[in-house]
Specification:
Blueprint lengths: L1 H14 L7 H35 L2
Keywords: Membrane, Transmembrane, Transmembrane helix
């Protein structure tokens, strides 16, 4: 959870978003941003895998 909290804080500080005021809000924001990051990673890996498969299949 520490890495996730660090990534969420870095994202918030980078884009100038107001910091969450309570620990509960920090946890919620960390989980939401972590879910977003995980979704982006899965999509990128899926597209990469699909393109490599198509390249290998000769299409």
């Amino acid at each position: 959870m520490g890495l996730l909290h660090f990534l969420a804080s870095a994202f918030i500080n980078t884009f100038g978003i107001t910091q969450p005021s309570t620990p509960k809000q920090e946890r919620t924001v960390s989980l939401l941003l972590g879910g977003l990051i995980l979704t982006v990673i899965v999509v990128v890996l899926s597209i990469t895998g699909f393109l490599l498969y198509q390249l290998h299949a000769g299409r």
